[in-house]
């Protein structure tokens, strides 16, 4: 009988209404309506809350699977307990599917009962209402994360992390929504708020969905303060990703770690960073420490914020406003050029930060992998030259990504093989992508969606002096 563990649990913990509700669903599955009704009566308001919910039936099942994976990876009892509390919260938000629903997981009740028993044995009772009592005074703080929404992506893991990371040190945890297309997450400066988890004045956790389709409701307006903080957070994550990638380049080139931002932002040809952005000096020590510990290099650690990491941010840290206390865009920046649709994207992992329209040379544009070497301001020696105001050479080849004095060629195959960009686009890319940025050129790699901020929301930077090459006028392919 599948409900053996649940029956044992409710005997030990008859006041746990969540367990009664789950046991009732098992009895429904077995056709024992009388026993099921008795369990539902014991469940009381939990039964009412679940049965009235109109949220998608399978959202909690998918979430639970991810939650179990996270718990197994952590292999710590306190983490497991916290994750199951998150599950209880999501059950209240999303609702439990009928026992005969196509997406119903028959092992869910048994798995939950086992976890609940392990918690109960330690003297800690899970809360059936999905709200966790806190007795420590709440400080005023806001943290952010982002997740993909669309198709099969509903941001369950990010919501789990927001709930688990909330508590006495965090007043508001906001989950921003990235649009999904072709398994790419699209990063924007004005991403909508999808969920907010809050700790109120009494220390109680609550969650609010701001997605009308997801909650099947009329959600309230997101406050202006949260919107402004969210936009500032996205801007800071971009500069952090640029600085993090520059640290990687420096270590690879020099075999040692940089001591400060100034060592990355030197005159040509040591201009790993061609521009600096506000806040880089403050965030440098934290990023350097992550890399030295092997926690900030792509391939050595997954993005914990996206995977559900909920470690409390350290007070005073430049990433105290990020869920998990680390930079969000952890993978090294990479440039991808798609010859099929004339697109150039700046990416971090599977997140597209920018997707520009570019001019190419058709078959004359080479396919393969390269890295950014020379980064030059005014490669022709003047701002109105044929290569525009910026140029980035591809490895030690005669090809480059550069501006153009022929803006009408953008989107066409009129170059001799180089990648042409409009002035605003190439200057922004030059600022974001440091030396050493990998470049991949091929076909059918990127979505058609152009992803470029409005002029007022462009990446803000300060040009490092002496970025031109006084000893050379570039003539790529000419």
TrEMBL record:
A matching Pfam family: YkuD
Top-level taxon of the source organism: Bacteria
Extent of Polar residues compositional bias: 300-315
GO biological process: cell wall organization; peptidoglycan-protein cross-linking; regulation of cell shape
GO molecular function, one term: peptidoglycan L,D-transpeptidase activity
Classification via InterPro entries: LD-transpeptidase, LD_TPept_cat_dom, TPR-like_helical_dom_sf, Transpep_catalytic_dom
Residues annotated as domain L,D-TPase catalytic: 333-442
Pathway terms, separated by semicolons: Cell wall biogenesis; peptidoglycan biosynthesis
Coiled-coil region list: none
Record-linked SUPFAM superfamilies: L,D-transpeptidase catalytic domain-like, TPR-like
One GO CC annotation: extracellular region
PROSITE patterns assigned to the protein according to its UniProt record, in alphabetical order: LD_TPASE
Disordered as annotated region, ranges: 294-319
Catalytic machinery residues: 402, 418
Xref: Gene3D superfamilies: L,D-transpeptidase catalytic domain-like, Tetratricopeptide repeat domain
Keywords: Cell shape, Cell wall biogenesis/degradation, Glycosyltransferase, Hydrolase, Peptidoglycan synthesis, Transferase
Family: Belongs to the YkuD family.
Protein name: L,D-transpeptidase
């Amino acid at each position: 009988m599948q409900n053996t563990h649940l029956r044992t649990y409710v005997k030990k913990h008859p006041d746990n209404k969540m367990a009664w509700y789950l046991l009732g669903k098992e009895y429904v599955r077995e056709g024992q309506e009388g026993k099921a009704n008795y369990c539902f009566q014991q469940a009381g308001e939990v039964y009412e809350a679940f049965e009235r919910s109109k949220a998608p039936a399978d959202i909690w099942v998918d979430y639970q699977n991810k939650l179990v994976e996270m718990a197994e990876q952590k292999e710590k009892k306190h983490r497991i307990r916290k994750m199951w509390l998150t599950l209880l919260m999501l059950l209240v938000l999303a609702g439990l599917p009928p026992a005969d629903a196509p997406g119903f997981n028959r092992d869910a009740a048994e798995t939950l009962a086992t976890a609940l028993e392990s918690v109960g044995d330690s003297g800690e009772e899970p809360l059936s209402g999905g709200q966790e009592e806190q007795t420590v005074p709440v400080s005023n703080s806001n943290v952010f994360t982002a997740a993909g929404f669309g198709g099969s992506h509903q941001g369950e893991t990010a919501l789990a992390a927001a709930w688990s990371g909330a508590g006495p040190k965090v007043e508001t945890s906001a989950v921003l929504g990235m649009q999904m297309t072709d398994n790419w997450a699209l990063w924007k400066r004005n991403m909508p708020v999808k969920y907010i988890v809050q700790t109120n004045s009494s220390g109680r956790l609550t969650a609010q969905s701001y997605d009308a389709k997801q909650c099947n409701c009329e959600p309230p307006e997101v406050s202006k303060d949260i919107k402004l903080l969210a936009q500032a957070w996205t801007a800071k994550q971009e500069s952090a990703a640029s600085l993090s990638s520059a640290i990687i380049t420096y270590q690879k080139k020099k075999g040692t770690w940089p001591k400060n931002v100034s060592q990355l932002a030197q005159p040509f040809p040591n201009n790993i960073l061609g521009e600096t952005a506000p806040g880089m000096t403050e965030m440098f020590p934290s990023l350097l420490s992550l890399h030295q510990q092997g926690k900030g290099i792509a391939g050595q650690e997954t993005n914990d914020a996206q995977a559900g990491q909920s470690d409390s941010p350290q007070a005073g840290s430049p990433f105290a406003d990020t869920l998990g206390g680390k930079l969000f865009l952890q993978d090294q920046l990479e440039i991808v050029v798609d010859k099929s649709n004339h697109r150039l994207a700046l990416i971090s992992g599977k997140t597209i930060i920018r997707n520009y329209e570019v001019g190419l040379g058709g078959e004359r544009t080479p396919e393969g992998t390269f890295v950014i070497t020379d980064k030059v301001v005014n490669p022709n020696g003047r701002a109105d030259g044929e290569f525009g105001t910026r140029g980035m050479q591809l490895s030690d080849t005669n090809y480059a990504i550069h501006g153009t004095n022929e803006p009408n060629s953008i989107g066409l195959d009129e170059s001799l093989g180089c990648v042409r960009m409009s002035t605003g686009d190439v200057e922004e890319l030059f600022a974001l992508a440091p030396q050493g940025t990998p470049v991949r050129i091929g076909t059918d790699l990127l979505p058609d969606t152009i992803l470029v901020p409005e002029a007022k929301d462009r990446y803000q930077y300060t040009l490092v002096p002496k970025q031109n090459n006084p000893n050379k006028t570039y003539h790529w392919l000419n």
